[in-house]
Design goal:
Number of domains: 1
CATH topology: Lysozyme
Helix content: 40-55%
Largest sheet: 2 strands, antiparallel
Distance between the termini: 15 Å
CATH architecture: Orthogonal Bundle
Number of strands: 2
Shape: globular
Number of helices: 7
Structural class: mainly alpha
Length: 169
């Protein structure tokens, strides 16, 4: 059964949050808990962006898909932290969002803040180009750039995170 992101991901609130997304490499979907350390940034980060598509649910799904909540994640291509941002991208969109004196892609608040800013700009650019700003399009542009947003293989990969989820039991 295919459901919209809003219908599949439970509302992020309170101390216990369960996010239900699909692992593209798994045989089935399973609920994924949003770690407490991420809750504040996921709740407040999207408030920076005027686009209604950039929600706590969307950001949580992206972070889970990119790093499975791993703060120390580093990809073979050099992407870093929970949002898997390349250093040159973090240099543009990163900031010291938690006011600890250091802006780092490995810091949860800084990574999520940068992710939200990048997604917000991406949504603006997609909209300006007359392209839909659905979660799959934004995530595809995030992963592959605006020029690859319609690549069927890229869309299939990122789309599975948002469309193959199952409701929490």
């Amino acid at each position: 059964m295919r459901l919209s992101l809003a219908a599949v991901i439970t509302a992020i609130c309170g101390s216990a949050t369960t996010l239900v997304v699909s692992d593209p490499g798994a045989a089935h979907s399973a609920p994924v808990d949003v770690p407490a350390a991420y809750q504040h940034a996921i709740h407040t980060g999207p408030l920076q962006c005027p686009h209604h598509e950039i929600t706590p649910d969307f950001i949580a799904a992206q972070v889970w898909a990119e790093s499975r909540w791993r703060i120390d994640a580093t990809s073979p291509g050099g992407a870093q932290g929970p949002a898997q941002l390349l250093p040159h991208v973090f240099a543009i969109y990163g900031a010291d969002d938690d006011s600890n004196g250091v802006a780092s892609p490995f810091d949860i608040a800084d990574a999520i803040g940068a992710l939200v800013r990048l997604d917000c700009i991406t949504a603006s650019n997609l909209r300006a180009a007359g392209h839909p700003t659905d979660p799959v399009s934004i995530a595809a542009a995030y992963r592959g750039g605006l020029t690859r947003v319609d690549d069927p293989n890229l869309r299939k990969g990122v789309g599975s995170v948002f469309t193959n989820a199952v409701p929490a039991q």
